[in-house]
Amino acid sequence: MINTSKRSAALLEVDGLSVTYGLMGASSRAIENVSFALGAGEAVGLVGESGSGKTTTAMAIAGLLSPNARVSSGEVRYRGNVLPIDDDAAMRPHRWSETSVVFQGAMNALNPVHRIITQIAEPCMLKLGMPRGEASARARELLELVGIPADRGTAYPHELSGGMRQRVMIAMALACRPSIVIGDEPTTALDVITQAQILKLLGKLRSQLRLALILITHDLSVVAEACDRVLIMYSGRIVEEGTVAEIFAQPKHPYTRLLIDSIPNPANGKKMIRPIPGDPPNLMNRPSSGCAFHPRCPSVMAVCPTEVPSIDQFGQERVACHLYRSSQEDRGASHA
Amino acid sequence: MSESTTRYSPLGPARAVKGFLQQLLSHGGAKVGLVCLVFFLGVAVMPNVLVGPLQTAVNATGDFLAPPSSQHLLGTDEVGRDVLNLVVHGARISLTIALLATLISLFVGTSIGMIAGYYGGSVDVWLMRLADFFFVMPSFVLALVITPVVLEVMGRGGDILGFRPSLFVILVVIGMTSWAFVARIVRSQTLSLKERTFIDRARVVGSSNFSIMVRHILPNLVPQIAANGALVVASAIYVETSLSFLGLGDPLQPSWGTLLSLAQRAGAASAGAWWYLGAPGVCVLSVSLSFVLIGNALDDTFNPRRRVIP
Amino acid sequence: MRDTTDILRLESLQVHFPIQGGLFDRALGRPAGAVRAVDGIDLNLTRGEIVALVGESGSGKTTVGRVIAKLAQPTGGKLLFEGRDITSERGSSALRPYRHRVQMIFQDAYQALNPRHTIFDIVGEPLRSLRLVDNATQLAERVGEALASAGLSPPGDFFSRFPNELSGGQRQRVVIAGALAVKPELIIADEPVSMLDVSIRAQILQVLVDLRSKHNMALLFITHDLPLAWSIADRIAVLYLGKLVEIGSADEITFNPRHPYTAALRNATPQIGGNANPAELRALQGEVPSAARVPKGCRFHPRCPLAFDRCRQDEPPSVEVGPQHMSACWLAQ
Known about the structure:
The complex is a heterotrimer. By secondary structure, chain A is an alpha/beta fold. Chain A has helices at 54-61, 88-91, 116-128, 132-145, 162-174, 192-209, 220-226, 244-249, 254-261, 322-335; strands at residues 12-23, 26-38, 43-47, 69-78, 81-82, 99-102, 180-184, 212-217, 229-234, 237-243, 312-314, 317-319. The relative contact order of chain C is 0.14. Helix content of chain C is 32%, strand content 22%. In chain C, the strands form 2 sheets. In chain C, strands 6-7-8-3-9-10-12-11 form an 8-stranded mixed sheet, with helices on both faces. A 4-stranded antiparallel sheet of chain C has the order 2-1-4-5, with helices on one face. Chain C is α/β, with parallel strands linked by helices. Chain B: Keywords: Cell membrane, Membrane, Peptide transport, Protein transport, Transmembrane, Transmembrane helix, Transport.
């Protein structure tokens, strides 16, 4: 559980959030007991493989869960107020003006028959009730903000490159002046150099607009470059949380450690990549008990298959692993 | 390397078929269509058991144009034949012609559509112009042209594959005019299939064009062919009926269309003999409707937007 | 067999796709252009060597792979396999000996497997179509062997399963098993891990690296990921807009790039413990131009931070800048 008094300044607090999907009569938990806080202007990376629940977490925060999903416990607070995340109609005034989302492959979400400036002006008119002229001026302003010359606004989506279109999507996400932007794999479909440009743009927007950023990605190195803090998710739970510097210098959870080891990194000359055995579990075949990572974990202990590790605080970090809990207890015992 | 084998709900072929049937039958229309179709197929398989041999003017049993009674459930025609007897025997002729014509059209349409789509270029252009030609050709005109030729060659009395010459003409005409529709659909589907990576892989592992078409493209076309095949049968029944109605049928092997034509000529409409016109008419309507219902349900079941083709 | 002989050689390979002009262009007799996807590439692979072909989308790297796999026909240049020109060989029977020795692995394993075939049929297909087995027993033996060496064991468990019953990593292993079944001497791997989860990537790469050490198989590894190329390859070739801008040993290209594009690519790649400050992310300005409108002179000059007059006029030749290290940049001359 989150220490609310300590983090009262948080912009967004996610507290014990669990989301269940109804699938063919059965129901399965997509995320379980997810808690974290986000400060104004802070960038948090939400890292996990497919099926880890990172997208579900983000969609829950934005109130964009699919109809067969249900918030079974927990809540999301924005500036201390509980958000009605499972009520589509009640969520409407909060969406886009408090939290907005830039989707993966969003470049294809643009309507091909309208000029981009019209598409950016539309949310301004609909959401903020701006008159056409004002909305159009705002759209030009937004285009300049994301690094597209305002004159290019008359272009149609197909005339722009993938990177440009992703910039347009970011401009649309900023239209209603949100204080949090959620990027769902916003650079995955882009080339390396374009990705760097977009990450640079997001960094600039953060400092310029004091924008908080939740970056959902499977790519640890993107997080290393663009975020302050990292949340590592595995099989629906947060397994580790910490600052970028801490996590990459001294990962605690065996999964995080293996994940970092499986990325070749010329910066430290680490050429040999170490495979993690097995497949990441999907929604349907998660281990029924204990720590979800135990079938693949090299440091597995007797307790791991039976007991779900609780997430414990270690200074600035949080880790959910029996390895650390037992050592803490040992320490406690030796002190006593 | 030890890898825990992840099992994703193993679906054997048997279970896949079962799932498919369940999904198909969840359409109300498909249920109605299947029941109706099974009934007519049953009737067509054993007409002699149900109503005895086909009646002719010689062995007719009833009055002229008698309304339905306990003895003649569907009344009689202008020479005293039992309409029920005629309709039941007509089912066999009509369904056989429609199904055979559909087979011809599916075979020709699939081969030509697949070859055109797979090879592309000038092969595609020429085959599709040929398809366009047959697509716009009115079946009645074609029948008028072919009939005398067949009759000249085969003689009026003989039969071809058990069909009287004029019925054979109808069969061929329907086959010739409906394949173009199938070819168009198959071609467009082939065009999208051949861009799939598994076709590239098949070429890299050395498969010949023929084997790629037969082993990779054809099985993935089956849903489209099945769904459209049902629609082709429906239209074949209509075309057969109208051609027979216009007088191309054979009185010795009366189909439903022939019966309608005979009824028309006997003045059944003006004489108020509704049973004579109505019985074959309802049969044509219900059989083609059931094929349309099944076709639509198949299309829905296979539709990739609703379900990824397994 | 000599070990350092070239197994594959590309000589000024060129693939231009014609552009169909619009109705107006044709009526006015305007010449329709061409997309210069691959615009004169020289590359060689020796036996048992792993070469990575690195480039962004639109660089032509996939087209090069498709030409070598005989899925695309070059419009110019030569493709030599063991010194024999096979540029114009076509047709499945003529290519049978070549296919036996050169196989390909695809990016999207799900798309690369026919959803209606069983794993046995899929892995057995090359053995059947290349006539490498005489009977069913032999076929089953070879299929099992291939599945096992791709890390799918016990192989028998997979024979009658369909692709949609497997996980992403297992599907890619099936594709690899299909390529391995014929015991090729060269495998072209087109982004084989980019669609896979991070924790699975290393497993698949391990399988590929093992092939080289066990069977001395050569590998052309096509990727957009420079660190990944560095970790697996002996040599890296960097492709920009259809031309090789730099080629050299993996370490040289990664740590001592001599072409501004390679340097930009390296700097743009996010790294753990690389740039601490996100604002420091150096991104090149602009985007890759269309291959239909290749810039005059050096094709990188509109985006190059170091461009000078000569770059706008003349195309730089590829020159040796170190042992086995070539760069096509006027600054390297």
